[in-house]
Specification:
F1FO ATP Synthase; 70 residues; 2 helices; mainly alpha; single chain
Length: 70
């Protein structure tokens, strides 16, 4: 895989960008939902944290894969 290091770094950067955008969108949507239904805030927050954790795990896996494949 000689000469392919740059592509791996681009992939890791895209994974980090995707994670940031995904978690930002989840947070934004959760705040909108809590503003509409404040009584459901705890359920929304729990679902938001679980989804953010899953996205973070997938992103970390993608970054680690890009870093160690070379």
């Amino acid at each position: 895989m000689e000469g392919m290091e740059g592509i791996f770094y681009i992939g890791a950067g895209l994974a980090a960008l995707g994670v940031g955008l995904g978690i930002g969108r989840i947070g934004s949507s959760a705040m909108d939902a809590i503003a509409r239904q404040p009584e459901a805030a705890s359920k929304i927050q729990t679902a938001m944290l679980i989804a953010a954790g899953l996205i973070e795990g997938a992103g970390l896996f993608a970054i680690a894969t890009a870093a160690f494949v070379k």
